[in-house]
Amino acid sequence: MCPPELFYGRASPLTPNREGFLADFPLWAVVAVFLTAAVAVALAGTRMVATADRLADRTGMGEALVGGVLLGASTSLPGIVASVTAAAQGYPELAFSNAVGGIAAQTFFLAIADMVYRRVNLEHAAASLTNLTQAGLLIALLVFPFLAAAMPEVTVLGIHPATFAIFAGYVLGLRLAMRSRLDPMWGPTLTAETRTDIPDEPAGGGRLLLVLAGRFLLLAVVLAAGGYGIAASGAEIAARTGLSQSVVGAYFTALTTSVPELVTTIAAVRRGALTLAMGGIVGGNLFDTLFIASADVAYRPGSLYHAVPDAPYFLTGLCILMVAVLLLGMLRRERRGFANIGFESAIIFVLYLGGTGLMVAAL
User: Fold this and answer.
1) Who's near 149: CB < 8 A, 6+ residues apart?
2) Which pLDDT does position 195 carry in this prediction?
3) Could you tell me if residue 199 is inside a domain?
4) Radius of gyration in angstroms for the set of CA atoms belonging to the chain, rounded to a whole number
5) Backbone phi, then psi, for 338, in 5-degree steps?
6) φ and ψ at residue 159, rounded to 5 degrees
7) Per-residue b/e over 235-274, b at no fewer than 16 CB within 10 Å?
8) What is the mean pLDDT of each run of 10 residues along the chain (363 residues)?
């Protein structure tokens, strides 16, 4: 059995604040709020794929960027609300674990989507320079929490300098991804199984474009509201049941707030929008790094990176390893693996389930 010190050897976080709006509710009511918010998140997420696909065509941004920026960020709204709310209420470990747990879960969802797409390995069919760029940037941004934790606890207005670096890296990375689409220096070899991003609708549209944007915004608001409900109820469940904040964040709130990504990814694969599916996960994970930075801003006692124990950093390292495997899979572009799943997806399965086992064994 893995010793608990591997995950929980650092100083414990600040005592949580129990003044949330659910503090006086019975446990069954808190669970009901959690389930209701989860259903709202799932229903709203299922309706976003078709709208995002049409926006990719109408705006001319392409599926990879729309998937990574609009779809990925919008389906991530419940997660960022969950992390920020948890940090503001005094649950830094829950906030951090929700962020990195969501990245791990959503990368795992891509392996599931690979199984759903029967024709060929998903990483082969959805080859895209933009997605490769975003995956590389994701690995880079996930390194910043490690650097912050290794540095002295220095803050500016209660915010660690690494937080500013994450925000800046995200913005500069999006600019790089946009340039890679507009002026690519190289691209994937086209094969019979490659699904290129060919628009189904002409660019523009005037009033129709505004209607699509309005619909997308409304669904995003529903997702954000659901995320707040999940965060508040998840924090209460963690406090009342005595469960580890890392476990609740990584495998409770993170998985629930990641339901939109799972639903939209499977829907996009079945729709044939493979680049949108891949971009939604990779770009969404890239946006999820902002959860950590935003939670550091919301956590007022000091640096979030120094307030959490070791378990979230184990999850962060696991995320880096999973994304690196995915990136190598997109570069290798294996056509078919074993039992209709690529070898990189099989490795991701093993890493995620193995990491979960280690977390549970350490309790």
Assistant:
1) 305, 306, 313
2) 56
3) no
4) 20
5) -105, 130
6) -120, 130
7) bbbbbeeebbbbbbbbbbbbbbbbbbbbbbbbbbbeeebb
8) 36 44 82 85 73 69 65 75 86 90 90 77 73 90 94 90 95 83 70 56 64 81 77 72 75 75 76 74 87 93 91 92 90 68 85 88 71
**CA angle in degrees (0–180, nearest 5) for 122-356-123:** 10
Name every residue whose Cβ is closer than 8 Å to that of residue 195 and which is 6 or more positions away in sequence: 125, 126, 272, 274, 275
Residue 65: name the closest of 276, 329, 323 by CA. 276
Q: How many CB atoms lie within 10 A of CB 335?
A: 14
**Residue 139 is part of a domain; what is its CATH number?**
1.20.1420.30
For the chain, how many residues are written?
Answer: 363
Within a 10 A sphere around the Cβ of 58, how many other Cβ atoms?
A: 20
Give residue 63's pLDDT: 60
| 5 occurs within a structural domain | no
Q: Alpha-carbon dihedral of residues 10, 14, 18, 20, nearest 10 degrees?
A: -100
Neighbour count for residue 36 (Cβ, 10 Å): 14
Residue 239 lies in a domain: yes
**Domain annotation covers residue 16:** no
The residue whose two tokens read 């670096």 is 165
Q: Which domain holds residue 339?
A: 27-183+207-295+305-361
Q: How many domains does the chain have?
A: 1
pTM as predicted: 0.78
pLDDT at position 238: 67
C-beta separation of 275 from 195 below 8 A: yes
Rounded to 5°, the CA angle 358-362-363 comes to 125
